[in-house]
Write a structure and sequence with these properties.
The protein is mainly beta. Strand 19 and strand 20 form a beta hairpin. The longest helix has 18 residues.
Amino acid sequence: MNLFPSRRQVLGTAAGGVLATFAARTAAAAAPPAAVPYAPPALRTWISLNAGWRFHQGDVAGAEQPGFDDGAWAATSVPHTWNAADGADGGGNYYRGVGWYRKHVTVPADLAGKMLFLQFAGANQVADVWIDGVRLGQHRGGYSRFRFAATTALTPGTDQVLAVKVTNAPDPDIAPLSADYTFDGGIYRNVSLYAVDKLAVRMLDYAGPGIYLRQRSVTAASATVDVTAKVFNNNATSRSLVVRAVVTDTDGTIVADRSSAPQTIGANTGLDVLQTLTIANPRRWNGLADPHQYSASVEIRDAAAGTVTDVVTEPLGLRSFSLDPATGFTLNGKPYGLHGVNLHQDRAGAGWAVSDADHAQDFALISELGATAVRLAHYQHDQKDYTLADAAGLVVWAEVPLVNGTTNSAAFTASTKDQLRELIRQNYNHPSIVFWGIGNEQGRDDTPTNTLLAGLAALVTAEDPDRLSTYANNLGNDAKVAGHAETTAFNKYYGWYGGTYNDLGPWADNLHRAEPDRTFGLSEYGAGANITQHALNPSQPSPGGQFHPEEYQALLHEASWRQLKARPFVWGTFVWSMFDFASDGRNEGGRPGINDKGLVTRDRATRKDAFYWYKANWAATPTLYITSRRWTARTVAATQLKVYSNAANVTAVLNGTALGTRSSTDRVFTWTGVTLRPGANTITVTATIDGTTHTDTVTWTLTT
């Protein structure tokens, strides 16, 4: 289905305006009254279904039936996963199989006559859903939102049983087949019920919002937006409808308003209505500096009854962007450096079953770092993440969960395309999203793999011709898999999985010199770090070994960013990764089951040294940080002091004795030849940043 109807389908419009009010002829003209702010009517009913579930790990015959006895099952709520513990303890043997969920549901009686839809924000990876033993359907794919029509199965005012069978067992027809992270099973995101009028914006458009805001042109003077509303008439008779599209500013002021002429929509049919709106002198979504968002509301009106039956409101952040092979990424006509991190949906103690507060904390830390971009790897994330990125001004790379291997089958191709279509439809209106990723690190460069990637790139163009498709490649500069998306990025772990950390710049230079018209980014780079392991200026450790000193990760990132910031032709750079995360098959760095390349620990409790290196370089907020601070127990007196700061000068004191003042042009301040005394040693550093004095202190204890 083409998301954008032909302009021939545009309905006639009647422009509205504000009538000026004038005083009597003999009096001076009075100022017009203030416009009444627009507030969209709340016509939909949304009910959370997160509480009151029963859970059983394993398959059980007949568990979908309402009379099934689940009294021995565990009480739980969603979000929930059965792999929160065994998915992060190492061994690669976490449970991958069936889990059952059951819950009693009583739809309020006053919702009789409404259309009812069950919504699951995410369940990994195949979910079958029943109401009182009536099967509503199956969803395949573990990361996208899905909905089932439930009007005929649910009886308002009646106690009924909602049963869900979920399995995260490997399936050769569903991506991803494998990846370097744990595939948590369960209903790990929110569950809810929607009740809408029979004449409404479509709910079953791949679980998308049903309204799509295509930015045709955005400049400082004007923005042109095509608003497509997918309307569905669930009535048994035809209706005459009017569609109104309203764009408002944050205070409710209307900046664009258009209504269609009445048009007939047949019984039990859909209709796409496209209208073009123009916003004069728009305040643009401008990254970190000003992530301004308007709201776009679409009202569905029953013309004969004269009533509004449905309203959907979506974010509208007006912006333009482009890539240049010489200067990199441009936002709203100006060069804009994209430097950021990769993010997984995982945290200690919860696995994938993260809360809205958890999401908010993650993005607060990303913003503290000073990142301008985030790659939401390696799959569709919860809507909360995209909404947070919109508000923070972070440019987003969103991607389909095609990782590592593929299956050469029609079923695998269809499933992967469905997951990409869901990703795009459900997230189309988020201004933060600029890139649609079509895959990551396919292990083979053969014909079936390239045929699949070519089809995914074509699907991006068909669904969203205005954003950029991209691909994360690890098969070399000339790999055919890198030739399908509009731009390519590379996963390069120089200094960790091969080479040295000083190889990154020469690699980028060689590629740019060989193909000066090619745009490319750096989708992954990084190194592991255990915050309890330390060494002074360590050599490169074994990535699969048990010693991952925190200091080596910092050295690698120091060298990497020095090289990257000098090469603006690399359109985006993304640290792997923002947080440590579960990868149950790993056993390295003294932490079985964990990929320790994060800048922050998996529990979000500790920002590693490398975090502050990037904060000192990227963030505008004052930074003054003594590195190796967790290396508190020392056995060698001779050491060095290293500080990350965005100050011009830093002064250090050891045990009350001045070590002197250092200046730096690259955010690193170093004192060599420091000698610790036996026992406790207190080091204090001070710096003046933006007229304010800042201090940091550590204590290192020397035992001999």
